[in-house]
Amino acid sequence: MAIVKPFRGIRPPKDLVEKVESRPYDVLDSEEARAEAGDNPMSLYRIIKPEINFEPGTSEYDPRVYEKAAENFQMFQDKGWLKQDDKEQYYIYAQTMNGKTQYGLVVGAYVEDYMTGVIKKHELTRRDKEEDRMKHVRVNNANIEPVFFAYPDNSVLNDLIMRYAATEPEYDFIAPIDGFGHKLWIISDDNDIKTVTEEFKKMPALYIADGHHRSAAAALVGAEKAKQNPNHKGDEEYNYFMAVCFQASQLTILDYNRVVKDLNGLTSEQFLDALRKNFTVEDMGTGIYKPAKLHEFSLYLDEHWYRLEAKEGTYDNNDPIGVLDVDISSRLILDEILKIGDLRSSNRIDFVGGLRGLEELKRRVDNGEMRAALALYPVSMQQIMDIADSGKIMPPKATWFEPKLRSGLIIHKLS
Fold this sequence. Notes:
31% of the residues lie in helices and 24% in strands. By secondary structure, it is of the alpha+beta class. Strands 1, 4, 5, 6, 8, 9, 10, 11 and 12 form a 9-stranded mixed sheet that branches. A hairpin with a 6-residue loop joins strand 9 and strand 10. Helix 4 (63-78) runs parallel beside helix 6 and helix 6 crosses helix 9. It is globular, with a radius of gyration of 23 Å. The two termini are 25 Å apart.
């Protein structure tokens, strides 16, 4: 049973939303955030990338940076750039990319559900990244940015969402840079609020799609506050953290591709020969070739594209991990042939999100920065849910969700 609750969102007035909203903190570096914020004092980057308020080169982990985040969060509220809604309510957040729209419900997710595994994860988290986000949540006493969940398809919730989607949204804008559309509606009707709460109670689990470190940090700070409160009852706001929950079938997962700096001392021909042990290898010529199905890969090497297909027996269709193309490529190409074992720490490999296209792989190899590129067929949401249900963890750098959630549309205060 998944427990969610409505909350009093803190958000920009309608006429300021495009001044405030931003990309998430973890998809750009400090200098990119500094450039995007420019001379706009209302940019949320001044709260989520607060190092931009200091001289270039200031560490994002400097204690002054966290303090500045809290100072700016308060200042945004004092100036009316962010205002808290009077009523506890849910919100609907829609994103449109390439003509396809996905609709998410913005809810307060239950900390205890994260602790007990009702909210399921499929990635490992790093303690240093968790601690960074925990500091940010603590100092602001708020979830400034949401996490991204998936839930099993639900016709009652879908009907409710579509009813609101036929009405005028509270926010409606096209984001700069990527050109994706974003809309937001408010669910303030008490009967609809009750329906959302009750339908989530029927769900055995929710699934973290994107934002494992933010989820961990938000839940751990909530649990921390519960321990520190001698009068803790269980209904305090810190027992919940902000999540945007999408129907699983609506989500778009793009390929997450690999580029490598060397062939581990092998010539191109030796590398191709080594691949033939576990893959059929077909030269597709110089035109870009994209994998068309599971267990098919594209290799770019010496200005040629190759189609690789994993041979029978190299994967296990009954194992939620063993069936994954990220596992096949990690085991049989990156580890066995190239001797790149730890994808998280090796400096011989880099990763390219599918939104950039295979042209980006070609560019990075052609300019000599990388020696070869490997394109993968995207992981499915069902595969992610199967892995989470089995209690297993996906290999690193396996999923790339688009579009990313915009930050600054709603903030959840912990008190």
